[in-house]
Amino acid sequence: MRKVYARRRLSILAAVTGLIAMAGLFNSPSASAALPTPVSAATARSYLATLTVATEDRTGYDRDLFNHWITISGACNTRETVLKRDGTNVVTSSTCAATSGSWYSPYDGATWTAASDLDIDHLIPLAEAWDSGADSWSSSLRQQFANDLTRPQLIAVTDNVNQSKGDQDPATWMPSRTAYRCTYVRAWVQVKYYYDLSVDSAEKSALTSYLASC
Length: 214
What we know:
Layout: H1 2-15, H2 17-25, H3 41-50, E1 71-73, E2 76-77, H4 78-86, E3 87-92, E4 98-105, E5 110-112, E6 118-122, H5 126-131, H6 139-146, E7 154-158, H7 159-165, H8 181-194, H9 201-212
Antiparallel strand pairs: 1-2, 3-4, 4-5, 6-7
Helix pairs in contact: 3-8, 3-9
């Protein structure tokens, strides 16, 4: 019953919350902004305790089923919006491409001055979301998830670090910068909880361990 209710709730959120975000929260983000602050460790632990534990299933997954990097405001798509939000002194062209600025990657502690050196990481990878319940979502909800700037789901990081992460969960991959790991797992649990996604047993064990030391 909880799953049925949650899916209905998420359908409403896709139609209402997503539109509100696109109309207001996504406009002209501050260059000094960053990943939305995740819930506290205590809240994350309480959220984790309620998540369904289930075996993951990737049957039917295709990245194109998540319409990502949609137009957010004017000429700016989601990637460009996050680059502007997460960078310092970011200058953009008339097409919203970042032409200069500085970006600090919290996963590995590297600083970059070329936008081409950054990827926008889906903190919960799209494939991981699919495995955990997004296979039953509507296209509009998958689009909301893939472009969610309201939850701590999108962040600019070093491109090859993001590529090494791939679709892994915290049981097999964590940021090399240990000072960021608490933020990372708090954000991971918050997003999974908000979207009513499941966790597998190894993932839950890893999250429990990391959160215990937060």
